Amino acid sequence: MRPTTAAVVLCGLAAANALAVRKCCKRGMGPGDNGTCVARPPGSAPFEAPPVFRAPGVLASTAPPITILYGRPQCPPDFDLFHLYNRTDGDGPIYLMEDGSLLILKHHEWVNSSMYCLESVDGLVDPVICMESFDQEYEEEMETAMNVYPVGMLVSLPFLLATFFVYGLVPELRNFYGMTVMSHVSNLFIAYLILVVVQLGTDVLPMIVCISFGEPF
Ligand SMILES: *[C@@H]1O[C@H](CO)[C@@H](O)[C@H](O)[C@H]1NC(C)=O
Ligand SMILES: *[C@@H]1O[C@H](CO)[C@@H](O)[C@H](O)[C@H]1NC(C)=O
Ligand SMILES: *[C@@H]1O[C@H](CO)[C@@H](O)[C@H](O)[C@H]1NC(C)=O
């Protein structure tokens, strides 16, 4: 065990200048399948507090003793708990800082010590933090917009096509101005067509079609 991870467990009584770190589940318990805590399988590695950092990537020279508190934090109203992943391909690196807060380098965010807890999953320590919950109303508005916009665009398509042909077929209109209008409406036609296909077909189209049409999810 490295000295920086030495954990001093006091029964809820924080020692002077000790760092209090919250473990999400009770001692001997780990995360279960459905957000609950379950007993850790026998023989699995016990929870160890992560090292303390002075700056990103710079360990604290003298690590304070760590007091482990048990249980999830009380999030403010309208906040929910979210699991972050301390990997470079997730939200990492995430550092436990000397004042007990977490530094999430990727999101340029400090998480106050009262707003998170830690839990180890397969030997890796991941934080669970209080974050403002997504706005339900906004989500619903977006959903409606995504259903209404394509219909409007679908209606526009034949008119764009008609404009294109009128400018292409009437000789008096085949001048420089007419050419720019034709380019403009044909561009709009293609753009709307792709948008309509992507917005209405995201659930049924193969991923490769969505990606090549510029919708990466
Ligand atoms: C979660 O899982 C545990 C054990 O598998 C079970 O006892 C409990 O009822 C589950 N809770 C919910 C909310 O599904
Ligand atoms: C964390 O939040 C509490 C309550 O809002 C506040 O008293 C405390 O100073 C904060 N700690 C840090 C390190 O910002
Ligand atoms: C996150 O991962 C980094 C790099 O592996 C490690 O130095 C750091 O202590 C970890 N943070 C936590 C909170 O476990």
Automatic annotation (TrEMBL):
Key words, A-Z: Membrane, Signal, Transmembrane, Transmembrane helix
Signal peptide positions (record): 1-18
Keyword Signal tagged: yes
The UniProt record lists the keyword Membrane: yes
Domain of life: Eukaryota
TM spans (from-to): 148-170, 190-214
Name of the molecule in the record: Uncharacterized protein
